Amino acid sequence: MVKVKKRVALTAVRGKTSIAVFLLLAGCLLASAVCAQDVRTYSKDTFYQWLQKYADAKPDFKPGDVLTPQDMEKMRPFVPPGYLEQLNFPEFKMTVGGSEDHTPRRDYMDCSEKYQAQVRLRSDGALENYLCGQPFPLSAISSNDPLAGIKAAWNYEYRWQNYGLFSYSLPWMWVRFGGTHSPIAIDYPPPEWSVGIDLSGKMPKDTSEMFGGGGTFQRTLQCFYQRVYFSHLAPLADKGGLLPAPNAQDFEFKEFTGFFGPFDIRGTAFIIYRYSDPYRADDAWAYLPQLRRVRRISVEVKSDSLLGTDHTLEDFYSFSGRILEWKWRFLGFKDVALVMSSQHDYAHYYGPNGIIPNDRWEVKRFAVVERTPTYPRHPYSGALDFWDVQNWDAGMLVTFDRSGKLWKIFQFTKVWSEDIKDPTITSINHGVRSTDFQTVAVMDLQNNRATLNPLYGLGFPDVTPSQVQKLYDINNLEQIHR
Q1: CA 84 to CA 69: how far, in whole Å?
Q2: If phi over 0 gives left and psi between -120 and 50 gives alpha, with beta otherwise, what is residue 247?
Q3: Between these two residues, 81 and 1, which has the higher pLDDT value?
Q4: What is the model's pLDDT at position 10?
Q5: What are phi and psi of 57, to 5 degrees?
Q6: How far apart are CA 177 and CA 16, in angstroms?
Q7: CA distance 137 to 85
């Protein structure tokens, strides 16, 4: 009798265990917090193994198919680990589109064909004899070449961007996993910043269908952003690739970021100068409304959090640091499913935390490059960049903490300039042949939070010297007050 009781008790325990396991699995199928937290155990080896196992995988799905959570195993070879788990929720649908041609504009391609053969790597990894276009042909990027990683990095650095990215309104949204949110309102920058391009009142007024799903939007900053390149410009190849501006040869780019909402940060603005000399430190200035003065600031510690978000200055665009401050290793080419040619002009999100693109996906070929910081106190032990081999634009960034564990995944949703339908911004898109940043979703998987950056009024416009001189004049930083 005692043995029978023990057997019954053990059966009961096993029954409870089975129920617990069932509930855990069901929770994972619903993309619960428990399932999302499991990815924190992933390491660099997880990604090395994924790349090796699926290096030559070809999809058994085709354009027109719609994949759901029941098709996770079909998606696994083409969606990086850690990100695949974020797609595992009941409403998820991967609408598969054809792979669009992202060949850059003819003037950039002409530069590549004319000047590529003269480009060389110096012994320190810097470029020499580079004028414009793509520095290295795709055939020069090979796993057999120990310099392939830094060659890929230079191809990314000098990818096709016309004169640089413009975003009329760029919200920075703090997202906490779980909970609910309300749609955001799109505000407009002061006209003094958006020199020559006034889109006030022309952006989408109703964003309710853009921000679906869950997630708690704790705070939203509104900013205007523009980066302008001064050298190595394909449209000006006959002028040495230089913008007709003073000392243009000394600069790679200048960058303006100005915040205009909410009230407590309105008027805060930054200007950063990146020099052509790969060893020269950036210069930067900030206007702080509380002090009512412009101050020179240091941006040399590019690994610090930017205004409390999950971004750092180095994370901009996927990588915005200085190439010679990192070690580079090419890990191979990989077919990856991402949103690189959105069916929308502006980002649409859904999912448990409101950060997954509700869009058309496509499988494209990416170069996967690992970078390791030379700075010993850098918060990252390394990062993996996924760059589209057609135009070297970023599709995804994966970063690891000091212990080598998965930390953040940056998902860059792109829209092809020629697909833009909103007549408000077709003039700064059609004919450019570039992939525009439609959104950046930074997922901090260790802390169950994210930073979401949808871009409105985006494009790669032409610029004039007078516009550039006014925007990047340090004396004009103090022009916006509360």
Answers
A1: 10
A2: left
A3: 81
A4: 32
A5: -65, 140
A6: 29
A7: 35
For 13, 20, 120, the CA distances from 8, given in Å and listed in that order, are: 9, 18, 76
Identify residue 158 by its one-letter amino acid code.
Y
Residues 6+ apart with CB under 8 A from 176: 215, 216, 218, 448, 449
User: Is beta strand 326-338 parallel, antiparallel or unpaired with respect to 127-128?
Assistant: unpaired
pLDDT band at 314 (very low <50, low <70, confident <90, very high): confident
Q: Residue 302 — very low, low, confident or very high, per pLDDT cuts 50/70/90?
A: low
370 residue type, one letter: E
Matching residue, tokens 């979703």: 441
Name the CA radius of gyration of the chain, rounded.
24
C-alpha dihedral sign at 300, 301, 303, 309? negative
Choose among 65, 139, 50, 78: nearest CA to 335: 78
DSSP bridge pairs for 284 = 272, 297
Query: Do residues 255 and 229 touch, judged by C-beta distance below 8 A?
Result: no
The tokens of 368 are what? 């996967």
Distance CA 396, CA 409 (A): 7
Q: Name residue, tokens 């106190």.
A: 377
Residue 279 tokens read as: 């060893």
The pLDDT value given to residue 299: 67
Could you tell me which residues are beta bridge partners of residue 367?
333, 387
**Count of helices and strands (H, E) across the chain:** 7, 20
Output the pLDDT for position 34: 36
Helices within 286-386 (DSSP H only):
none
From the list 439, 441, 422, the residue with the least C-alpha distance to 430 is 422
CA 440-387-313 angle, to 5 degrees, is 45
Q: Is the peptide bond before 262 cis (omega within 30 degrees of 0)?
A: yes
Among the ranges given (243-247, 288-292, 360-364, 466-470), the one the predictor scored with the smallest mean pLDDT: 288-292
Q: Looking at the predicted structure, is the pLDDT value of residue 377 above 70?
A: yes
Are 210 and 346 in contact by the 8 Å Cβ rule? The answer is yes
Rounded-to-integer distance, Cα 318 and Cα 380, Å: 14
Alpha carbons within 13 A on the beta-carbon side of 95: 8
Model confidence pTM above 0.85 = yes
Listed residue (435, 459, 463) closest to 199, CA to CA: 459
Residue 334, strand partner residues? 366
Structure tokens at 272: 């950063």
Distance CA 261, CA 221 (A): 6
Phi, psi of 28 (to 5 degrees): -65, -40
Backbone phi and psi for residue 265, each to the nearest 5 degrees, phi listed first: -120, -5
